[in-house]
Fold this protein.
Amino acid sequence: MTDEEGPGLDDDLCVTACQRCPALVDSRSRIVNGVGPIDADLLFVGEGPGANEDERGEPFVGRSGDVLDEALRDAGLARTDVRITNCVRCRPPENRDPRAEELANCRGYLDAEIDRLDPELVVTLGKVPSEHLLDRSVAITAESGDVVDARLAGASRRVLLSVHPAATLYDRSQREGFFDTIARAAELAGIADGSGGQSRLGEF
Ligand code: URA
């Protein structure tokens, strides 16, 4: 990366300066980095910050975040047990989807975060992160709950696809499936209550 683009990730897996996407530099209040332990077994990847995240500087702190937190609690996990990040770290204007070039500009940061974290399992929250990380089109409602292998940050990794937590707010019928997927994530990563810290990914 050049000086103008800013440095890469710091020791806390954070980007402290970046000017790569002019529209996002204009629309953001701050860069929203991933949160959670830098050695977490479970990494959740969302699309990008919304208004609440942009204001507070933390991923998934609005209504979607409330749903994610509730599903984590149901699975016996605290938010602080897992790492949560996004495909892009700056809020797109008017909450539009991040553009292909913006996803590409931010990819190096996400890959560096995945590489340094080296999680047992990556969970994609929604269609945008699923398609971005798998590099194919994804019918997310149909594929939610599926575990696939993907080459990410130079290694083959297990990825669990999930609908976005916001989908449960628009369509209440998606709630049970979303909660089941998050419980499955905890179990597969070996961090669910009663799993004894043993990952079950070898079974898949
Ligand atoms: N939706 C996302 O995809 N990411 C967030 O951080 C918040 C909402």
